[in-house]
Amino acid sequence: MNFETIVFYVFAALTLFAALRVITARNPVHAVMFLVLAFISSSGIWLLLEAEFLAITLVLVYVGAVMVLFLFVVMMLDINLVRLREGFWRWLPFGAALAGLMVFQMVWVLGSTEIAGGVEAVRHAADYSNTKELGRLIYTDYVYPFELAAVLLLIAMVAAIALTLRRRKDSKSQVVADQVAVKKADRLRVVKMQAEKPAAGHPSASKE
User: Fold this and answer.
1) Model pLDDT for residues 117-173, shown as the tens digit of each residue
2) For the ranges 5-14, 68-77, 153-162, which has the lowest average pLDDT?
3) Sign of CA dihedral 98, 103, 106, 111
4) pTM for the whole structure
5) How many contiguous H segments (helices) and E segments (strands) does the chain have?
6) 23-29 — which CB contacts under 8 Å span 24+ positions?
């Protein structure tokens, strides 16, 4: 067992431990932090596969942006943990069946002849760019799945906006067109009023 294999098993163990703690941690903030640890461990596995671009993207996009947003949302929301755990035992059989299906798929893939044959990892030259190779594969061999994934993400984003959009009857909004077209006569009216009697002690009052 060489050094790279030991490092892989360390990162894999950290990823599994962090993933289990994400779903078992009682504190939502702790769950988010364990998810960050899972992402960082996964980026380490990407580095072992010489996929530096994917590793850096995983850290910058998910850990640096998405997970920070999740952390702020979790800390700002007043989450009722008792209500959140309602129905856990009712949905446990479904979750266990889904987890068993995922384990079966992973064993099936890992037990295939192409992977189980012990194929050595391809060693690339020093000037090899995995970013260039990834872009070439995405926009040539996998261009249609890439475009399909983009359309699905767009549909999901539009659906999320449509579901969360609420129009309140008592809400007030500005109409820019009406504000631009307004005239002075519509906003200002000059009213002529008679002068009031001077107050007591005023010089004009003594003359009366």
Assistant:
1) 555 656 667 677 778 888 888 889 999 999 999 999 899 889 878 877 766 666 777
2) 68-77
3) negative
4) 0.57
5) 12, 0
6) 26/81, 28/74, 28/79, 28/81, 29/71, 29/74, 29/75
Amino acid at 11: F
94-109 in b/e form (b: 16+ CB < 10 A) is: eeeeeeeeeeeeeeee
Spatial CA neighbour of 134 closest among 46, 15, 41: 46
Q: What angle do CA 88, 92, 97 make, to 5 degrees?
A: 155
Residue-by-residue DSSP string for 63-120: IIIIHHHHHHHHHHS---HHHHTTTHHHHHHHHHHHHHHHHHHHHHHHTSHHHHT-PP
The angle formed by the CA atoms of residues 135, 153 and 77, to the nearest 5 degrees, is: 120
Distances, alpha carbon 26 to alpha carbons 32, 39, 74, in Å: 11, 20, 13
Q: What share of the chain is helix, strand, coil (3-state, %, to 5)?
A: 70, 0, 30
